Amino acid sequence: MRHGDEDYLMRQVGPYNDNPGMTSSNPDLNRYFDDPTRNNSQTGNHAPSPFSNSNSNLNNMPSDPADYQNLEGSAPQTNSWLERSQTSSGKRSKWIVIGSFLTLAVLVAVGVTVGVILGKKNSSSSSSSSSTSGAPPGTNPNDPSNFQKNPALVQSFYGLAYTPLGSQLPDCGNSLTEVIEDIQLISQLTTRIRLYGADCNQSSLVLAAIQETKVNVSVFLGNYPVATDNGTAYERQKGEIQTALQTYGAGNVLGVTVGNEFILDYITQAGQTDPNGSAGNEAAAILIPWINDTRSMLSEMGLNLPVGTADAGSYFNNQVLEAVDYGMANVHPWFANVSIDDAAAWTAEYFQTTDVDLANSLTNKPKMSIAETGWPTNTSTFNYAPNDGPSVASVGNLQIFIDTFVCQANANGTEYFFFEFSDEPWKAVEYGGVEGYWGLFDSNKNFKNLTIPTCST
To answer: What pLDDT shows up at residue 101?
Structure first.
């Protein structure tokens, strides 16, 4: 299966940083964090006090006409009425001030009481609204590890093949928010995933999402090199993997896979079919140094992780298998024109006789697993091939394959990565046919009309 065009120059996506203010070039965490910068303070405007400009104006107070002559006397005369009036006015002003303050205090107390009552009502209304909204009870949107489980999902798959949508150069449209949502769903189906490449920061995004969600998921990181670019794609992705391991550690890393259908692509372009022929050995001479270089990189980092490769089931080169710790084989009954009724049994037998037996014949006996297997659910009109096989691409036939393969493989101890987590629309556009429709989920993360059997892995 194809998983990206590696001929573009790298677009570096910065490592994960849990800063809600990060720019669009970094992963977006705004969904999980409240805005700490919001200013809730408000400045109130108060009306002027009615007492601030109070004056006692006594200029027009009446006087007894009989006393007018006293106003021109040599000595000042005391007006007893005026004294009483001034005293009385002062007392009235004093009581007015006291009364006004008391009234104001009562109004404030009433306002506070009303505010508390309304606040309680609003809180109760908000709680009631939350309990009836789409947010599941007990879910904390600021904590990715607290998420609602889907009762239709069962952790029955040994592993899943996974590529975050938007992980193809030069666009790199993936994000931590989207990968976190993927990992939340994946963790309900399996404890293992495999990646194909490392472009667009996907190694760091996946490891960051696993840590943020705190789920039990481990990953085989991947380096998807190209034979014709003098190692440019390999070196670019090596750097991405190294950065991811330095940033997030290897606690959730199962190994590093170098190459995906590398031998198949090389010998097909050369017009050959034998993986151990001249073209296959030429491809091995290119791939093996990258495998060894990856092992050296991990050793220099103090990490003892297995290094492997993935290829089509019948296209393993013996020299390559002798250089790795594990091999992953793509085994697809659909492309072998096998009917859905025979698909599960054919997959198990083919993997055993073609891949496991080959590995056991080598001196290093690399551990083998199925890198891809599954059944498509649809096909596009572009490159539509109505004679792909005796059974159609449909959700119903995917259900049959799940029912006849998953629990049986678990019981037999077969290690496999079911293909795949979700549909990939870009493949339908670029390659057509069934390429874009292998997911358990559609590209909008809607679970297809499937029933997952219950069985341990």
So the answer is: 52
